[in-house]
Amino acid sequence: MSPDHVPEIVVSRIPLYLRALSEMKAAQREITSSQELGDRLGFSSAQIRKDLSQFGEFGKQGTGYNVSFLIEQLQRILKVDQVWDTALVGAGDLGHAVANYGGFLHRGFRIVMVFDNAPHKIGSQAGPFTIQDTAVMEEQIRRHGIKIAMLTTPAAAAQDLAARLVNAGIEAILCYAPTSISVPDHVRVEYIDPVLHLQNMTYYLSR
Amino acid sequence: MSPDHVPEIVVSRIPLYLRALSEMKAAQREITSSQELGDRLGFSSAQIRKDLSQFGEFGKQGTGYNVSFLIEQLQRILKVDQVWDTALVGAGDLGHAVANYGGFLHRGFRIVMVFDNAPHKIGSQAGPFTIQDTAVMEEQIRRHGIKIAMLTTPAAAAQDLAARLVNAGIEAILCYAPTSISVPDHVRVEYIDPVLHLQNMTYYLSR
DNA sequence: TAGATTGTTAATCGATTAACAATC
DNA sequence: TAGATTGTTAATCGATTAACAATC
Question: Does A96 fall in a domain?
């Protein structure tokens, strides 16, 4: 139930399972199997079962998994049976797109503040948010007890801002800046850099 | 030199090495070591050396790696010593942000056309591009011999568009839509879904 | 030369898969 | 009951690490 240590690679697949199950639920599927889920995601059924078994027993032999029940369980495991307030740092084009994105809330996240350091942006809107000066960033994050930040600044600004975010109490950073940042061990960082994915694919393309 | 088969996980790290090396070069570093590169990226020096050794011998014992030389070699290996024309499908907020992103060209990619199916968007601008009707998408992609597409549409439209892109000759898709898509074996797909990363991190956060 | 760092081998570690008893 | 599918074990497979000869 409360596993001692689950491999990180297993944890990283649970959100994928949750996403696929949510699609199944939206399509009115009430029951699924490790086979069906695996086919859909390109994993073996054995892997699906093994991964889920790290956290408990969620299925019924001969039947499979109840979609709604498994969704609830995975949401609880990932702690997205609640909504996490997050701060967005960087109000460029990408920051605006992220601020306007409607897909966070029903998956457990809500942007509640947006920061930038450009004087002409401060006070203007990014989606439903008034852009605030990064000068008040630490204070605001601390006051609201925010633990998650998304960083959509240029690479050159990322390391300094990450350090300031950590200092303000941030424990998880989703970094859109195309660079590696260094943070203390208790802080988690995930990266999104589209070019890494593109360069990965061109390796397999013929010229 | 021309390795038979390199594990996918090794290939996926080469773009990271290239990115870090490019930062070093920008900072005027002429020589680096597997130790330094590893420290910077959070990998062991042994892994860096082992990964690079899959493709050839690029270093000098006692000295390390020439940054510029290694950059050239990795660019060649990844086939980003050329610029790849790409098509962008989906001109919403995210599509606009991607169309305006200045970080593609010097890393081997160039968007050359943008498509959407919304009548009020067709003919207007997304960054420097005039948005074209998806009705002419296959024809345009075929005519220009484009092999790479970025998909920034809602999830519901992704599978159908992916099939059409493949039919038009696309061999690599970077899918920003939060869903898994199914394509023939000869087509590669990479995914970007920020929520998967966020849900991964919340597993490790305390409530 | 002495010191440093590569490229590579072998050992270790960890993840995936196959198989099947349990059981719905 | 018969058929189906889980949860789990053991075997396989593959990736990472440690160690060191080679050599710059």
Answer: yes
